[in-house]
Design goal:
400 residues, Rossmann fold, 2 domains, 8 strands, 11% strand, globular, PGAP1-ab_dom-like, GPI inositol-deacylase
Amino acid sequence: MVSIKTLHGSVQLLLDLTSGVTDITETMHRTVARDANPLNRLRDIAGLPPEERQGRTYRMIQSTTSALQRGLHTSLDRFSMGDESSHLPQNVKVVAALNGVCGDHLEASSNPLAITMNFRNSNGERVLPKSANLSSVVPDASPRILVLIHGLCLSHEYWKGHNEADLGTELQRAQGYAPLYLNYNTGRHISSNGRELAKQLKDLVEAWPVEVEELTLIGHSMGGLVIRSACWYGRELELPWTRLLKNALYLGSPHHGAALAKAGNLLTFVMKKFRYASPFALAQHTSAGIKDLRHGNLLDDDWQGIDQDDFHPDYRKPVPLHEGTRHYFIAATVGKHVSTIPSTMVGDLLVRLDSAKGHHADDLRRLHIRPEDCRVFEKLNHMELLDNKVVHDQILEWLA
């Protein structure tokens, strides 16, 4: 069942896509026309306004698209409010994927599909720290809070996997944790999500029904980077929860970037060098979150003032692991033997082993942990780290 909210956001995104495709087509058309007729080059050199250089047909398409967008907001906004079907698991997963690909655009365009950061309990209900009924939403509140943070294009639903008990409920039964699941827009900059998580953890700890004794954060993929970013900003703001953070676990997190993001960046850079290919370098239109994964950006300083579509070196500011916290790293390889070169290079298909283990040639960027706090699993891919018994058993052993 497709919700009104999902339909509203999808149609708005389709209209945005139409506008974007129109721009690409016009750019290509203008490039070809300019090369075919030297007089058209003089129009560009003369510095004519964009609206005068733009063809009448393209202006008409863009005007029609804008009118449809205004009408869409007027007609569907009031129906989107309180639409419960948007919370169905299948709708949540589709929206999460869209947020990963273009979440920054969804947020900037006020699209109802844009996810706002929130905590969920084991039943999928929203946990609002400043709500008067917080105790009823977390009836089993424990002094030990556990927050699980998903990765790019995923949602809180993915922690459930195929097992009867997910990692959060397993830790609740075994060690008395109160599990919460973060849901957030993975298309935003990692630093934006990190800063917001730092503030939301502050509100959560302050409003928790019982006094909080310790906090544990578990992040899968991008979620691990959001944890490290939140720790940085939490320490900068001297937020109390940073002193309660006892454990942080990273499952397949690309601490020094993801190979797929690096490849996409290189392809975009090359395509932009050719006039006819440049309009089709679609990777330049992907989300800020995806672009952050090229090097593993954690802070605003890592991307501000930088063209992320350019092929630039690693400008990241070194971010050490949060002091006073035990950090655990889990990596995976699809190969049968960790020590082989293919296994090291391919990793879990999305993240290489050296990146997942925090290794780096530069000692300032290398994440120093004890050998017993890092485990590499063979014959597992990136997504299987979320819901695999041997991974869960290792985490239960570490946190015992």
